[in-house]
Design goal:
single chain, eight-stranded mixed β-sheet, eight-stranded parallel β-barrel, 22 strands
């Protein structure tokens, strides 16, 4: 056995030596290939510009793999959102050098908001990507954008402020002109011009087409409602929402500040409102007047006005918990109980409410004030001796008449403060005069139409027709509730309103004379109620998008019912806002290539300069 083992071992060693002899040429060949590859790589690196890191070249190649159709070098108006009313030209291409480009105000009509907007767009928005700088620049280079406000400079923003603008990019003299009647039209134009500037990921430079654009909004009111009362939102969160709104040309932020759940606003002289009703810990869940004033100006700089809402009398619980002396008492099973609704029969109540409203109105200097007025239950008033005695004195036969009296007094306070009243419908639907059975034209009163959601009420379309006949201005929210299961009144089928549905839902799609509908339908409002769309500071911005873009184009450009959105164009805008720091949900559950963002592969932050 030992002899056999030695023979076997000797034979294996001999076979191994033979194999090594046969493989040696192959080893040499592999070594030559590897060395040649390394040598070629070293030689090729010598041809690189010394200022360009090879790592950047590698990432640039990766960028080309993700270069979607919406960011390629073909410059078209298909990159704009919301789509302008009129766009022509675009046949010629001009280059832009970020270091040499200037935005220059022209004429005497200038001010702080204009200066701030120019700095913001030039420094943070126009040029997000590091580009190759070519020396000398090509002859077809755009060097400047001249900005001109035609009318006298005015920084007052109110419902109906002129937001129209026009843009002309001139290839023959390497300049562009943005003209508008107001500074807020200039803000809308700067946003459009920022979208005209395209970064070519293949040549790694900025380009713009020689477009001519004339644009204006379809609706005057294009709003978003945030439910601050049910879920406290930080100031920084609200600023992010305001930024996102400005990119989609929305112009009104409605803050639902007060409801049954909390009172987060500090009011001088009435500390118990926040001490007893703000979320715990109180110091982290209140807004100071100065914080809100700064937020108002932050919004104003972006062309957005803030409409505050103090929801009474149906949601006055925090007010009555803090200061019960201004609220009713009622009789229940023979005992006197403290009520949770204001006492409209007491003159001291009205002095108290006017002081509150005066201070809040001083924080929010805009032209509209939302007084709530929804979901008023009359049970406690019906059992209140003071209310029953008041009804007898006034000759009222129904407790609802007391509610109408309360609303009239509220409108009188708003007018005294120079505000236009807004209220929920149903709720603020009895004006201006219930008693003669007709409506009159009151331009300072508008209702926020939320009818048509799952409720005992009829659909919103018939209610809208009735409001037009009654000459009452309205703002539509019914089909624009974020994540609220509703019922589509057009075909009576259940739906959960997706952003695609909101995009194709025309606010003027109800029976009536077209001219009258356009007069009294002010616009729409995207509502994010916390009791139906669970939001907080952690997810509000991402939760609102992509709804913001859907209603933004709907209300600015105008769309027909059932119109499908342009995914490619909307993806461009979604990715653009992500670069600007606005988080966004995908446009669909199967959001795959080509509907994804190029900036998922980020460039190293470095400037490139090439001298020819």
């Amino acid at each position: 056995k030992n002899l056999q083992h030695e023979r076997f071992h000797h034979r294996n060693k001999k076979e191994e030596k033979d194999t090594d002899k046969r493989m040696k040429p192959l080893h040499y060949l592999v070594g030559i290939v590897v060395l040649s590859t390394l040598l070629l790589s070293v030689l090729s690196l010598r041809n690189f510009d010394p200022n360009v890191d090879p790592t950047i070249k590698f990432w640039a190649n990766r960028k080309q793999q993700a270069d979607n159709a919406f960011l390629k070098s073909n410059l078209t108006s298909n990159q704009l959102w919301p789509k302008p009313q009129s766009t022509t030209g675009g046949e010629k291409v001009l280059f832009i050098s970020a270091s040499d480009f200037a935005v220059t105000p022209v004429g005497p009509n200038q001010g702080p908001i204009l200066s701030s907007a120019i700095r913001r767009y030039v420094n943070k928005i126009f040029f997000p990507w590091p580009a190759i700088t070519v020396n000398p620049p090509p002859s077809n280079t755009l060097y400047s954008l001249n900005v001109q406000i035609v009318q006298k400079y005015n920084e007052t923003l109110h419902l109906g402020t002129d937001e129209s603008y026009n843009i002309s990019v001139f290839a023959h003299n390497n300049s562009a002109l943005l003209r508008a009647n107001t500074v807020f039209g200039i803000l809308r134009g700067l946003e459009t011009f920022s979208q005209l500037i395209q970064f070519n990921f293949r040549t790694r430079n900025y380009q713009v087409g020689d477009f001519q654009i004339n644009d204006h909004p379809k609706f005057a009111y294009r709003g978003v409602m945030v439910d601050n009362a049910r879920r406290f939102m930080t100031i920084s969160t609200l600023e992010t929402v305001i930024d996102a709104m400005s990119y989609y040309k929305l112009n009104t932020l409605h803050l639902h500040l007060i409801d049954t759940d909390s009172w987060p606003i500090e009011i001088e002289g009435y500390p118990l409102l926040t001490q007893l009703n703000a979320y715990f810990p109180v110091e982290n869940h209140v807004y100071t007047p100065n914080q809100l004033r700064q937020l108002v100006y932050y919004a104003l700089e972006r062309g957005i006005r803030i409409v505050p809402e103090i929801d009474t009398p149906g949601h006055s619980f925090p007010l009555c918990i803090a200061y019960p002396e201004y609220c009713i008492t009622y009789t229940y099973r023979g005992k006197t109980e403290q009520g949770l609704y204001p006492d409209p029969t007491n003159s001291k109540t009205w002095d108290f409410l006017e002081r509150l409203w005066t201070e809040i109105a001083s924080i929010f200097p805009g032209d509209q004030f939302h007084i709530g007025s929804d979901e008023m239950w009359f049970g406690q008033w019906q059992e209140s001796p003071a209310v029953l005695n008041f009804m007898k004195q006034q000759g009222y036969t129904n407790v609802a008449d007391v509610f109408y009296y309360y609303q009239r007094r509220m409108i009188d306070i708003m007018r005294k403060l120079g505000k236009k009243t807004v209220g929920w419908y149903p709720g603020l639907d009895s004006f201006p005069n219930k008693f003669n059975g007709t409506f009159y034209d009151y331009p300072d009163v508008a209702v926020t139409l939320w009818n048509g959601a799952p409720s005992p009420f009829n659909g919103w379309t018939q209610e809208a027709t009735n409001l037009v006949k009654g000459k009452l201005h309205m703002i539509l929210t019914t089909p624009y509730w974020v994540e609220l299961p509703q019922r589509d009144e057009r075909d009576n089928t259940p739906y959960t309103p997706s952003w695609q549905f909101m995009y194709g839902y025309d606010a003027l799609d109800f029976p009536g004379v077209e001219a009258e509908k356009r007069k009294y339908m002010l616009g729409g409002e995207l509502t994010a109620w916390d009791d139906t769309a669970i939001t907080d500071s952690g997810n509000l911005p991402v939760g609102l998008t992509p709804y913001l873009g859907a209603v933004g184009e709907n209300w600015w450009t105008g769309v027909k019912n059932g119109t499908a959105p342009n995914y490619e164009r909307y993806t461009t805008q979604r990715c653009r806002t992500i670069v600007r720091g606005i988080p966004s949900n995908p446009l669909s559950g199967s959001d795959i290539h080509p509907y994804r963002c190029v900036q998922e592969y980020e460039y190293p932050k470095r400037d490139w300069t090439v001298t020819l």
